[in-house]
Design a protein that fits this description.
mainly alpha, Acyl-CoA Binding Protein, transmembrane, membrane, lipid-binding
Amino acid sequence: MSDRDIAATFRQKVVFMKSWKPASMPSNRDRLELYALHKQSVSSDAPSSFPNSASAAEKAKYNAWRTKSGLSATEAMKLYLQESDRQIRVYGSSSNNNNNNIKQATNGPSAIRSSSASIASEDSTVSTPRGIAAIPLLCAAANESRTAYLRRISQTPSDAAWWARQEALCGENPSSVFAFPESLVIFLAKQVEALSLASGNNVIRAFLWPLHNSLLSLWIMAIASITLFDGVLKILKVLVWGARRTGISLSLIWKDLNLLVSSVHAACEPQQAITCRLVGLGLLPATYTVSLLDKGFPSVTLASVGLVALLTMNLWYFVFLLPWAGFWMLWFSVLAGFSFAVIEFAGA
């Protein structure tokens, strides 16, 4: 499919998505993912700076857009088509959708779905790093204040719980090895959220607020670690079997790894929550390794061999040290929760 055909299909899809009425409300993360891909498609890379006076919603949009930096307009359009198809499958369509939109024979979603499916099959080198894209959005969520958290929980019915709608982003399916760390974090967070919703008591909810924010940061840790080692496994496949047989490009793998580096560095910025900065600090040694190898070797193959060797030697750091640090983060969030519960009880 030519770039002109992709652009035409993209424009049709954008029109449809504006009128699409999902059967269930998409998560903020997924809505921001579509926003970011659309902005990258039509406006290229996000600006390097953003006003500090911007609202939290504007900052979340900017951070989501920035994760797509480096993608060409055509690549971003392809990813937009793939992501919008995924969301239509996940969230469904309301029965009162405009019939003219649903039944379009040539320009409607059926044609668009088939076109974007052909795009995916034609260009298997385009990846959709959903986990990486979620990192700045989770950082924004972790910045939620205690007051905002209490207000949101008090207005949220149990069947609209936020954590209950989340899914592992890195594994191919919920039972895969790569999905397990994320699934464990999400499971724990669901229990915390269920308890918070069922309590109806702001003192208990204030106690659980630090735990909620820490679990958001641990999700970032899980996503970053899994993405890194998934990239290493892909590199090994290419080094052993070759790019032609595996259908994977080393340059694309490194592009995803560099997106991960920028997302982790963004998590360390001063405006982020302390838990996000701590997680980002724990991941910095790995991201600096990726950056140094990427810039220090003239050959992507040599850089790939070096990355595999260094991460293999430091596997203990991700298997033992980071999970242990995550456990202590949860423990300290429980201790902090007692303080916030007292503050809420006192009405301060």
